[in-house]
Write a structure and sequence with these properties.
The structure holds 2 protein chains of 2 kinds.
Chain A (H helix, E strand, L loop, with lengths): L1 E11 L5 E12 L4 E6 L5 H8 L7 E6 L2 E2 L5 H8 L2 E5 L10 H11 L4 H14 L15 H13 L5 E5 L7 H18 L2 E6 L2 H7 L2 E6 L2 E9 L2 E2 L4 H9 L1
Parallel strand pairs in A: 3-8, 3-9, 6-7, 7-8
Antiparallel strand pairs in A: 1-2, 1-4, 4-5, 9-10, 10-11
Helix pairs in contact in A: 3-4, 3-5, 4-5, 5-6
Chain B lengths: L5 H10 L1 H35 L9 H15 L3 H7 L1 H8 L5 H25 L3 H9 L4 H12 L1 H27 L2 H11 L3 H29 L3
Helix pairs in contact in B: 2-3, 2-6, 2-9, 2-10, 3-6, 5-6, 6-9, 7-8, 9-10, 9-11, 10-11
The complex binds adenosine-5'-triphosphate (ATP) and magnesium ion (MG).
Magnesium ion binds next to α1 of chain A.
Chain lengths: 245, 228
């Protein structure tokens, strides 16, 4: 579903040199998989994830999502392709002046859906995340966990093939974290959506991922297989992340 | 100046009612033209100032630099000097340099960059992440402006309009004295040149009431639109 071929991302340092946030990296994520990107702060997890929907454009390499090479698309083609890739954020990033239903409707308005279709789809998605009774509330009236459910419903609304979640549970307590992870897993199983999660917690990986790439200094150190919640770590980095969990 | 009784003052003022009403209409006209110009030109300019900043959707160093410089340039003119400098332009546009419509030319000139800065600052308060979420969903720049920035910043924009209106009510008094007419002009002509202090006092009280009303309505509207 997602193929990154030798993608590389560098930033200019203030001293004029280059900082390599993502070293040339290749990664393939299968359809229907829940894939983790794990590593310590500054490892390049977010940057790598943002390359998938081209929020960051790679300096080199290609990004193929659902057989389409995003790096070659025009601005309007890219916008259409992005409607196929939902995104969930650590800080939720909901529109404060729109209701819960209005937030979930947003990507559908962007995609040009009819009013009737939007209404029906919003209700469906709020049902999936268990927030049907909050449709007319504003984000300020919700708890963190509920806000993130709205974020997930919003990402799910346009029937995307892929959902990207960047530290979606890092602002939440352990119990709420588990319920959000369950929600993502539920969506993955019911609708076959490919899910990519960025996290610094091995517990998140253990709880929902089938595979996870361990990152350090912009490079994939190893790709872990998670079988029945068991993780076989070969690298020191993966082991240290496991111990921290 | 002879002291007058309250009764005399009220009689004087009531005899002047038509003139006061005329002055109110002139002030309203000056203000209306200035505000409309500020919305139509200053508003989009403020969006452009914001959107051309580094990291924004139309990031463009040169455009941002030139616009910022122009805005600062006009804003650095003391208003009275701006009025005098714009006399030739006013004559060209309006055919005269007296009356409220003529006075509205320099008022508009001052209001446009002032409002542009207010809009720019208000838009900066919209969290970057919210705009980014819209980009990630495939929103076009126009959709981001209409459905994200305008909606999320609406209460701040109302507050900006309130500030603009009150500031320019005061500027319009200055413009009035230099041939525009209006409440400020009336206050100076009678209260200062003809020593009818009651006219000055009454006009100031009138302005105080107008300002309070504008601020009250602005606050209420801003609060109602704010769901944060
Ligand atoms: N726009 C940018 N300009 C310059 N440097 C950047 C930029 N974005 C990211 N970086 C740098 O790239 C590196 C990787 O950043 P990234 O956000 O991908 O890390 P991360 O693994 O997600 O960390 P965290 O867990 O703290 O979110 C960091 O050192 C960061 O400072
Ligand atoms: Mg990150």
């Amino acid at each position: 579903m997602i193929h990154l071929h030798n993608v590389r991302k560098r930033y200019r340092r203030p001293d004029g040199g280059w900082f390599e946030a993502v070293a040339p990296t290749s990664l393939s994520i299968g359809a229907g998989e829940i894939f983790g990107l794990i590593g310590y702060s500054g490892a390049g997890k977010s940057t790598l994830m943002r390359l998938i929907n081209l929020l960051e454009r790679p300096d080199e390499g290609s990004v193929i999502v659902d057989t389409q090479d995003l790096t070659g698309l025009s601005a309007s083609e890219l916008r259409r392709a992005r409607q196929n890739i939902g995104m969930v954020f650590q800080q939720f990033n909901l529109l404060a002046n729109r209701t819960v239903a209005g937030n979930v409707a947003f990507p559908l308005e962007i995609a040009g859906w009819s009013k009737a279709d939007i209404q029906q789809r919003v209700a469906e998605c709020l049902d999936v995340v268990g927030l049907a009774d909050r449709a007319q509330h504003y984000p300020a009236q919700l708890s963190g966990g509920q806000k993130q459910r709205v974020g997930i419903a919003r990402a799910l609304a346009p029937n995307p093939k892929v959902i990207l979640a960047d530290e979606a549970t890092s602002a939440l307590d352990p119990k709420t974290t588990q319920s959000i992870l369950d929600c993502l897993q539920d969506i993955n199983r019911r609708f076959g959506v490919t899910v990519v999660v960025v996290t610094h917690e091995m517990n998140v990986v253990r709880s929902i991922c089938q595979r996870a790439a361990v990152l350090e200094a912009g490079q994939v150190v190893e790709v872990l297989d998670i079988v029945d919640g068991r993780i076989e770590a070969r690298s020191d980095l993966a082991r240290s992340l496991l111990e921290a969990a | 100046m002879d002291a007058i009784t309250l009764t005399d003052a009220i009689v004087n003022l009531s005899m002047m009612a038509p003139e006061i009403w005329q002055a109110c209409k002139e002030t309203a006209l000056m203000l209306a033209i200035g505000l409309v110009a500020a919305f139509l030109i200053g508003g989009p300019l403020g969006f452009l100032l914001y959107l051309s900043q580094p990291g924004q959707i139309f990031a463009h160093r040169i455009v941002n630099g030139v616009l910022g410089w122009l805005v600062n340039l006009v804003r650095s003119f003391p208003f009275i000097i701006l009025m005098v400098s714009l006399v030739p332009l006013t004559r060209l546009l309006v055919g005269s340099t007296i009356g409220p419509v003529a006075a509205a030319v320099p008022l508009s000139f001052a209001a446009i960059p002032y409002f542009a800065r207010l809009v720019e600052q208000t838009l900066r308060e919209v969290p970057r992440g919210v705009v980014e979420a819209a980009e990630a969903m495939g929103a076009s720049p126009l959709q981001i402006i209409a459905k994200v920035l305008l909606v999320e910043a609406r209460s701040g924009l109302i507050s900006s309009v309130t500030i603009l209106t009150i500031s320019f009510l005061s500027y319009s008094a200055v413009a009035g004295v230099v041939g525009g007419g209006g409440i400020g002009d009336l206050a100076i002509r009678y209260g200062y040149y003809r020593f009818q202090t009651e006219v000055m006092v009454a006009m100031v009280l009138l302005l105080v009431v107008i300002v309070q009303i504008i601020q009250f309505v602005g606050n209420r509207l801003a609060a109602r639109l704010d769901k944060r």
